[in-house]
Amino acid sequence: MNAAVPLPQPAARPMKLVCPAGTPPALRIAVDNGADDVYLGFKDETNARNFAGLNFDDKSLREGIDYAHRKGAQVLVALNTYPQPGTWRKWQAAVDRAAALGVDAIIVADAGLLAYAAKTHPRLRLHLSVQGSATSHEAINFYHEHFGIRRAVLPRVLSVEQAEKVVSRTPVEIEVFGFGSLSIMVEGRCALSSYATGESPNTHGGCSPAKAVRWQQVPNALESRLGGILIDRFGEKDNPGYPTLCRGRFVVNGDTYYPFEEPTSLNTLELLPRLQAMGVAAIKIEGRQRSPVYVETVTRVWREALDDCARSPERFRVRPAWQEALAGISEGRQCTLGAYHRPWK
Amino acid sequence: MKISLGPLLYYWPRETVLAFYRDAASWPVDTVYLGETVCSRRRELKLVDWLAIGEELAAAGKEVVLSTSELIESDADLRAMHAVAENGTFRVEANDMAAVRALAGKAPFVAGPFLNVYNAGTLSLLAGLGAVRWVAPVELSREGIADIVTEAPEGMETEVFAYGRLPLAVSARCFTARYNNLTKDHCEFRCIEHPDGLALDTQDGQHFLVLNGVQTQSASVHSLVPELAQARQAGVGVLRISPQSQHTGEVVSLFREAVSGAIGPEEATARLAPLMPAAACDGYWHGKPGIVSEWERAHARAPATEGRP
Amino acid sequence: MTAAHAARRLPAPLGAVGRRLPRLPASIAFATGLNLTLRRKFPADVLERLEGHTFAIVVEDAGMELLFRVRGRRFVPVARAAEPVLRFRAVAWDYAALAAREADPDTLFFNRRLVVEGDTEIALLVKNTLDTIDIPRTRGLLRRAMRVVDPGRR
After folding, report:
1. Are C129 and C46 in contact (CB under 8 A)?
2. pLDDT tens digits for B160-194?
3. Is residue B37 part of a domain?
4. Residue C38: pLDDT band by 50, 70, 90 thresholds?
5. Partners for B (CB, 8 Å, 3+ pairs)?
6. What angle (nearest 5°) sits at the alpha carbon of residue B219, between those of residues B215 and B222?
7. DSSP helix/strand/coil, A225
């Protein structure tokens, strides 16, 4: 090889598509429609979508891993809540189960649990969950240096420029959110749900636990309440959103409005060429609590978009049919770039 | 038990802040946490000002700790964090893992409430990196804290958020700017108009939250003043009092009296009430929703029985 | 928005007929259908959780309310219930689309085409359980039937 000739700049690598699976049918549909990675959780509070009827036991996970591997997809298990006092063994056992079943990686938020996994299962690939709230390359590198994490999911707080800097300064693969329910607060740093209900993502693996949610028809309106707190009142023409406090309509100095955010979804399709060029490794789709129909629609659209983008980023155009399909399954039927777009802040 | 003054979470004019800490030098607190932890756009005081305040408080016999920001986004935020972490004079409270990395193996530090220490495994990891004190996340119950304390490394000090509006969430978005139809980058520093935050009510009139720029707090004031014996039993070593615009010194003195045993829980609670900007809550401590007041629930019928022969 | 967002309703006369029909026979037919297609697929712990509860499915454009209870791990029709634990309201087409996995329940909910009243936790359990169940043959039939009614569908 002639060292004097500069090597051509390697083309940016195609980004992986990481899709949610709350149920076995969703896993198969995600794989069939072109997901590179599927992420899921066990049926307990070791993951942040701990909802009744959702998630996987050992048998369905084993079958899911088989199915995904046969079709060339990988399975990531989210163990992304914080082990609570006195229940450490449960999380530890969940790590061991995931390792024994041969998952391709686990997604972890708690530093103590990462330390355990790194020590006990040195060959198990570790991803840092978005719930770990690592918003800078220095925070991500901390987890890399101590636990050898291979990928980190960026909290939905950085602008594109800030995310680009993070990617360029860490050896860790960076995964960013592409589509789905928009987190308004920094992930792993929000206790609004437990303030109203006693349970939050950090402590119980879920925001707005269903047992605390009440939908009630009152004259001329549909009310949603969480732990008795009135989140919103929807008139006949309003579209209801998820019953989370950060989507609520409240009163500040006599003004009734959405002080945090309207019911809306994150959609970063238009940023794909830029994300690919800056070296983002993977795009995550939110929605383990959503139906197989949702998973099918999102996976199909994002597969096509990522393929288009990988083929010729400079000619990439967001197809109207994609936007229409995504708008049809979005909360509030509208989309935003969220923090990627600075003025959102 | 020691008493600490948590970092000032609101945005006050420079003179107000200086006066506040001048007064604090004579309050019966053991430790004072200093620095801007909420929003990097708040610049009434620079690091040199905080260091100067720290010198005065240290001269008055206080332990001074500088707190790092609870959310780091930009290069400027990282530089500010390093400036705090490497200040060379005062101990540092780390509020994210970038700060822990900057301090690990270099200086003993305080593991702040935003590090999400929910179990003894994470605590011993941080202890190995130099943490000598940890501040429990606000969500942790007495029982949970006691559990962690039993397994905590030798010499680890435990601090709890004992008084004030609870910092519940942080966002990249500024809600005070949003209220004013402004973006964060052009926020006109409106937080300065709300020395105790901007009140948010539900549509049926319940006082619920307080907007404090990028931070969201509880409207109710979390108070452990009736729970000091239980806190001591659980292994709590430091009680954190969060500054508010009025009566902070009186609150501190009241806690001191209650800690010393000079006054009981009933009297302390009764005397605290007029010093608080809103109703009290204590649910998290009891493993309940943070908004509830178990104390009030348990004592709701007490006044009716008083004065009976 | 597109046609996909507009509710497809049964012709009004059909609804008028539906309102005059006795409720029980329809509920019997429906519960029987549930027992045939879904019962065995429902995890035992889920059926246990639903045991004793009554559910109402209102087919708005057919003027029909189907009522059934879970008893002895079977779906049994009931004539009337004081307060069902859950009441669903939607038009026939949307129910068919949900059953055929051609529509997303959250989307129908956001668009107020699916109204759910009652115990949210049980609603979520039912929704998530239905999402885990594979009934490809029934779904295939439903999808074909829907295409006959509306050939324009994908």
Report:
1. yes
2. 999 999 999 999 999 999 999 999 999 999 999 99
3. yes
4. confident
5. A
6. 95
7. strand
Which chain C residues contact residue A332 at CB under 8 A? 110
Residue C28: other Cβ atoms inside 10 A: 16
Residues in Cβ contact with B166 at an 8 Å cutoff, skipping those fewer than 6 apart: A191, A195, B138, B217, B218, B222, B281, B284, B290
Please report where in the chains the tokens 């994002």 appear, as a residue.
Answer: A302
CATH of the domain at B112: 3.20.20.70
For residue B27, give the amino acid letter. W
- Distance from the first to the final alpha carbon of chain B: 38
Min Cα–Cα distance to chain A from B206, Å: 8
The DSSP result for A201-224, as a single string, is HHHHS-SS-GGGEEEEEETTEEEE
CB nearest A196 (choices: B72, B179, B289)? B289
- Confidence class for position C129, pLDDT limits 50, 70, 90: very high
Tell me, yes or no, if A52 comes closer than 8 A to chain C by beta carbon.
Answer: yes
pLDDT for B77 equals 96
Chain C positions touching A325 (Cβ under 8 A) are: none
Q: By the CB < 8 Å criterion, does A334 face chain C?
A: no
Please report the ipTM that was assigned to this predicted complex.
Answer: 0.95
User: What letter does residue B28 receive in the DSSP assignment?
Assistant: S
Q: Is 3.40.50.450 the CATH number for C10-148?
A: no
Residue B290 phi, psi dihedral angles, 5° rounding: -55, -25
Chain C and chain B touch, per 3+ beta carbon pairs within 8 A: no
What is the C-alpha to C-alpha distance for residues A156 and A287, in angstroms, rounded to an integer? 15
Cβ contacts of A22 on chain C, cutoff 8 Å? 128, 131
What number of H helices and E strands is found in chain C?
7, 5
Pairing of strands A265-267, A173-181: antiparallel
Could you tell me which residues come within 8 angstroms of residue A298 by beta carbon, excluding any fewer than 6 positions away? A19, A179, A180, A285, A287, A326, A329
Give the pLDDT score at A4: 47
Count of positions (residues) in chain A: 345
A160-168 helix and A137-147 helix, angle to the nearest 10 degrees = 30
| Residue B197 in tokens | 């935050």
Q: Running DSSP on this structure, what letter comes out for residue A176?
A: E
Chain mean pLDDT for chain C: 85
Task: Give the C-alpha separation, A325 to A320, whole Å.
Answer: 9
- Asked if C4 contacts C102 with a C-beta cutoff of 8 angstroms, the reply is no
Q: How does DSSP assign B94-149, residue by residue?
A: E-SHHHHHHHTTTS-EEE-GGG---SHHHHHHHHHHTEEEEE--TT--HHHHHHHH
Name the residue range of residue B71's domain: 2-167+215-305
Quote the CA–CA distance of B226 and B243 in Å, as a whole number.
19
Of A115, A185, A249, the CB nearest to B121: A115
Per domain, the residue ranges of chain A are 16-182+264-344, 203-257
Q: Give me the helices (H) in C104-135, please.
A: 105-110, 120-132
Which of B82, B100, B176, B203 to mutate against chain A (most A CBs within 10 Å)?
B203
- pLDDT tens digits, residue range A83-114? 998 889 999 999 999 999 999 999 999 999 99
Q: Which of A91, A187, A340, A345 to mutate to test the interface with B (most CBs of B within 10 A)?
A: A345
The CATH number given to A16-182+264-344 is 3.20.20.70
Q: CA nearest C104 in A: which residue?
A: A293
Share of chain A above pLDDT 70, in %: 96
Q: Evaluate if residue A11 carries a pLDDT over 70.
A: no
